[in-house]
Predict the 3D structure of the following.
Amino acid sequence: VVHKEMESEEYYPLMDGKAQVNIYTEDALLFFVDHQENRYLDTCEHVRYKLMRNHNYIELCFQYHLLEPSLYIHLLDGIQAYQKVDDNAIGLGRHLLRLEGVKEYYHNSIVEAFIYYFYDHFENDMLDYYLAKIQLKLLNKRSRSKILEIMMIRDMYDQALEGLQYHGYESLAGKRLLKLCTKLIESNEKL
């Protein structure tokens, strides 16, 4: 089983043609692997049955501190599907950011969601904290432009300039670039 959010794969043996597998996101990939390590995705017929409805057990997991990365990824997957970021999602995401085994791009996508949330809710200290943590190279062009503009709005000119040097200034608002250039000229005049 491959979950795009995790660095490792999970293997489950077939017993009498059956296996009990942990699938915690909607887009998980189920591969069949033979003895020579060949992988088959669509060529093996199989049927998936949901073993249980997990919403009955989630609260118990929190109660007994059974806090696996898969639980957090599952919960955040549901939140992202409905694009509903709230304080609960922020708490889940913060915990997930501290866990090991989560892919770098997924980690960065959580930081990106936090930036938009804190920007929309005028929580400037938290916004600045996550702007300093974002990896621009892992964002698509559109997201990178939005984040660079937010950096300029927050007067984080050094980080914005560094991002512009590597990724260019296409699709950025002219007034933001003008403000950045003005600040750079002013800082050079002071030297």
Remarks:
- The radius of gyration is 22 Å.
- The chain has a mean pLDDT of 84.
- Helices lie at 58-63, 69-81, 87-98, 104-120, 124-133, 141-153, 157-167, 174-190.
